[in-house]
Amino acid sequence: MNPLYEHLESALQRVSGFIYPNEVELHWGLLVVIYPYITGLVAGAFILASLEKVFRVKEVEPTYRLAMLTALAFLIVAPLPLLAHLGHPERSFEIFLTPHFKSAMAMFGFVYAWYLMVVLLLEIWFEYRADLIAWRKQSRGLKKLLYWILSLGSKNTSPEAIAFDRKAVYAITLIGIPSAFLLHGYVGFIFGSIKANPWWSSVLMPIVFLFSAIVSGIALVLLLYYITSMVRRKTPDMPCLNKLATFLLIALIVDLSLETLDFIHRLYESEESIEILRRLIFSKLFLSLTIVQLLLGTIGPILMLAFARFSRLPDEMKRLVYFVAAALVQVGIFSTRWNVVIGGQLFSKSLRGLTYYKLELGGVEGLLFGVALLVLPFVILYVLVKVLPPWEDTRPSEST
Amino acid sequence: MRVGKIPGQVVRLAIVLIASLVVLLLVRARFVPESFGETGHYRADVVPAIAAQPIRYAGMQACAECHDDVAEVKASSYHRGLTCEGCHGAAADHVEDPVEATPAVPSGRESCLRCHEYLGARPTGFPQIIETIHNPMEPCAGCHDPHEPTPPAVPGECSACHRAIASTKSVSHHWSLDCETCHLTPQKHRENPRAHLPEKPVAREFCGRCHDRAAESAATVPRVDMADHGGRYPCWQCHYPHDPEGHS
């Protein structure tokens, strides 16, 4: 038998109810789940970094540079899942050459370029400029050349120049916060504006995406700060961790409230899709939505963080609880993206049937490639940390 | 590297930015086709390029100029919406040279089945057959003139056109019911099916005539409390009336 028919025959045994022929196979798979997950981490990490610069939250200062580098490492990887999913990555630059202002998807290139070039790279450059000059002076050979290129040949470390850098960082962060909202709000907008899909079509979608992004970004920086401190055999700064945990707790509560509002709103509206969505939630998404996203990824961490933050646990214990809560939040937010992207394609437009999604192991849309894409930002971050150490105690400009 | 009152670092960034913009403009000049955007968000030159491709289809009007007798018959038949070349294939070369290039004449069953083989997704009442049951091996044109495909005789049974429904119903709990028990069908439906559609039940109460607890039907008929069974949904939301227990 034709292998296509064989595939269709086995696929049809997994669907239930009535579904249209073009809905049996999902068009957006794991890669499209990874894409909003990664952009969310970027936006969240940046918003956390901006807390210190704009809102003067001094406690989180030790994580400022790490958060910026994390945002950059993840932003570099952010378009890769899309390029891999669409194929022909060599053509992607054409969206810059012939911009289409009426297409939200075509504008992604510009949102991305704005965020990368105008916000992240500029802010990191101004933040590190004095250090780059100092490192250049201390280095030899290729490393010296690298720091010369990175500092764009800049030499001025006068107090006026450094004061200007600080002002520039402040100004860029001010622009950066709405830009981070734009970047991840945009991803939510793409889903929220698909009016034919009742699981996606909601004006709350960009806001829900944004808050889940903040949650995941804070949790990631908390995890990285904890792990890097352990690796460097330093005790993590406890007021910093406490503050991060407080922000994470607040962001989780706001995120949960928004998701609940969205849920109640759907229930109250009770549109014709409510029946199939109920079946979706209780069958295909029960594990990933109710158990992983809601219980393990949201309510569990809220209770853990609230308990650890406001109890008299010893610091070591608190750190451990924060770590576990932040790790669970990551799993929960990944599950959130999964439930949005995969969940939205599991039911038929006829509202009468459900299809299935089976993750493959190999191939571009497979598990291994997905894992590689999720590991890649950490590799990039490792290189960035080696080139631009973010630690307070290794800042050369402090001593000059 | 200070320029006037502009700090050195801004000047350096400006140089990088200007260099990037120059590269972008050069790449744009190299890769964006000249005619892009003249008539929309695409390369305008593509329109004459497509127009220059050889014409393969002549169009129905060209056929009707010579075959006006066939065109007249077809125009008043159920196949009036079909183009000639839909069945006979591209015929521009036939218009150019009617003797040398002759269009295909489908003779078997295959090309008719492209539209008339039973498929659940086709509209209700659209003439569909199950190929293995409907006069097997006979070429369609033996009974139906493709230019005027109305059946030679008015069908006696509903199953002549609604074969799939009849097959499903015949092995269901509703096997003993006549179609007209639920569908009040005007006689003219058999002659001109689309102009005279049968009626369908529109409310739950219709099913309740046999299936309500108070109904006066045979004791073997399953009963439900129509007031609370299935909420506000019509019965056929869950029970397909031609196979109410879902055997097929």
Describe the structure.
The complex is a heterodimer of chains A (400) and B (248). Chain A contains 15 helices and 2 strands. The longest helix of chain A has 34 residues, at 159-192. With 400 residues, chain A is an all-alpha fold. In chain A, strands 1-2 form a two-stranded antiparallel sheet. In chain A, 70% of the residues lie in helices and 1% in strands. The model of chain A has no long low-confidence stretch (mean pLDDT 91). Chain A has one domain. Chain B has a domain at 111-178. Chain B has helices spanning 8-31, 46-51, 60-66, 68-75, 84-88, 92-96, 110-116, 163-170, 179-182, 204-211. Chains A and B meet through helix 5, helix 6 and helix 8 of A and helix 1 of B.
Structural class of chain B: mainly alpha
**Record field, number of beta strands of chain A:** 2
**Strand percentage of chain B, roughly?**
under 5%
Number of strands of chain B: 0
- Compute the number of helices of chain B: 10
Mean pLDDT of chain A: 91
Outline of the structure:
With 400 residues, chain A is mostly helical. Chain A contains 15 helices and two strands. In chain A, helix 3 (64-77) packs across helix 6 (108-138).
Question: Topology of this protein?
Answer:
The complex is a heterodimer of chains A (400) and B (248).
Chain A: H1 3-12, E1 16-17, H2 30-54, H3 64-77, H4 79-86, H5 94-97, H6 108-138, H7 141-150, H8 159-192, H9 205-231, H10 238-269, H11 274-282, H12 286-310, H13 315-341, E2 353-354, H14 367-387, H15 396-399
Antiparallel strand pairs in A: 1-2
Chain B: H1 8-31, H2 46-51, H3 60-66, H4 68-75, H5 84-88, H6 92-96, H7 110-116, H8 163-170, H9 179-182, H10 204-211
